[in-house]
Amino acid sequence: MDQITSSPIVRILNEDVRRYYRWCTPSILPGQERVEDFYASDVSISAGFFGTLVDHTGVFGEAERFAASAQGADRTMFSVHGSSGSNWVVLRMLAMERPDAMVLVARNIHHSMMNAIKAFNLNFRFLPAPYDARFEALLPPSVDDVMSALDRYPEALAVIYTSPTYEGLVGNTEDIVAAVHGKSPDCLVFVDEAWGGHLHFHDDLPCSAMQAGADICVQSTHKLAGGLQQTGLIHWREARVDSELLEEAYREYVTTSPSYGLLASADAAVRALAAQGRELLGVSIERTERLKAALRRALPDLDHLDDSRWLGAVGRNVSGADLVKTTLGLSRFGLSGYEVAEALVQRGMVIEKAGVQTITLITTFQLDEGAVEPTVAALSDILDGTQLPGRERQPMPGNPFAGIEDRPVIRPYDTKRLAKSIGREVPLHEAIGQVAAEEVEVYPPGIPLILEGFRVGADAVRYLEDARASGGSIVARDTTLTTLRVL
């Protein structure tokens, strides 16, 4: 086949992907019901004989009702835009509640949240977010942090935070819900549970957002709940959520040409977890435990996020850790997380996330029994001889979020417009202390470190430089970080 007709994307998917041990999303359930021929069965909304997605009729309504029941929600809607698109839907609903809507958001929210806040010109304040440098992790907000913010802003329509975090830390949602509901008759607890679609289906896992009483949550079914990429769910309780307004927002943003193959994958994944979740997740949890035990024996200088002493110390913010994630600190070694991740790729292994001094692996459903030993052997080989003398540690990167105030100097919506007339590019270090006119982040995890309308922090600049020098992927107007746009 010649170059004109041969797709490199098709070739990689057909020939290369399956050669790797994939400790990364998506986590595909091997035994779930599957569409037999994705191409032959592709169909459009014109074939309305089995119902339509936006009207919740036919097989789509049936699937939504099952998913709501399985996940402990009153209502559920399916997403083919992952959690990113679902976040836009929910924030659009909040923006339609009233023109001056105020939301309280944790600093570790995904960029899709910040972009929706900016697009809808929502008023917002950041909740405090403690940072642990050893694992490069922002922790979920504590109950006290949330209540202190509600005392200052009783008009807030929602408290928004991410749980589980990318590293696998789960917030104290049950206590936050009780406190918020006791304080405000209207304020919603909205959890970005992109990483927690599986939590509801195994008793040993931390409590899911719906089980903990959250008013609304979004999930990425493709991350850890068995579905194909882009599949997601929006769950809510009708007591405090305006269902009609949420459906209106959904109709505004959902594609009019959804992939029914993706919707079928999400439906099949929920049903498989409902029927066999304890067994299927039990295998992944056991395999994760085996991985961690082997790493502790082979590489005792690694730091483990699930260390009971560390989790106890952060109990104010964290109720537990996801048992199918392995987040490791590398500060006692001379390699960066990015270098380790690249070396693993060369050995046929892909991990979920790397940082300046951390790596995160996910024990996905499709990983076979034989994945643990070669992965431990590969990590041992990569890190051999790189231990720092005397069990010393590398200097840990500072908190890149430390310089961010709880509110912007100029609202991001206005900053975007002003940048056209009074924006200018300056050398990165000259931008420190000035008002940023663009967002900059390391991806993954996709949490902005520099935000439009906020002053540029020195710690954020240093962390970005460390990440880029170590091999991290920078998302910015100028990915070389030579310049930054400011007002």
What would you say this structure looks like, in words?
This protein is an alpha/beta fold and about 475 residues long. It has helices spanning about 10-15, 60-70, 80-95, 110-120, 145-150, 175-185, 220-225, 245-255, 260-300, 310-315, 335-345, 370-385, 410-420, 460-470, and strands at about 20-25, 75-80, 100-105, 125, 130, 135-140, 160, 170, 190, 215-220, 230-235, 305, 320, 325-330, 350, 355, 360, 425, 440, 445-450, 475, 485. The strands form 7 sheets. A 7-stranded mixed sheet has the order 2-11-10-9-7-3-4, with helices on both faces. A 4-stranded antiparallel sheet has the order 12-14-17-16. Strand 3, helix 4 (about 110-120) and strand 4 (about 125) form a beta-alpha-beta unit. Helix 3 runs parallel beside helix 4 (about 110-120). It starts with 7 loop residues before the first helix and ends with a strand. The relative contact order is 0.13.
Outline type = globular
Average pLDDT taken over every residue: 94
Count of helix runs: 14
Largest sheet, spatial ordering of strands: 2-11-10-9-7-3-4
Total count of strands? 22
Multimeric state: single chain
Task: Label the structural class.
Answer: alpha/beta
Concise summary:
With 487 residues, this protein is α/β, with parallel strands linked by helices.
Show the helix and strand layout.
Elements: H1 8-16, E1 21-23, H2 58-71, E2 75-79, H3 82-97, E3 102-106, H4 111-119, E4 123-127, E5 131-132, E6 137-138, H5 143-152, E7 158-162, E8 169-171, H6 173-183, E9 188-192, E10 216-220, H7 221-224, E11 232-236, H8 243-253, H9 260-298, E12 303-304, H10 308-313, E13 318-321, E14 325-329, H11 337-346, E15 349-351, E16 353-354, E17 358-362, H12 372-383, H13 412-422, E18 424-427, E19 440-442, E20 447-450, H14 458-470, E21 474-475, E22 483-486
Parallel strand pairs: 1-15, 3-4, 3-7, 7-9, 9-10
Antiparallel strand pairs: 2-11, 5-6, 8-13, 10-11, 12-14, 14-17, 16-17, 18-22, 19-20, 19-21
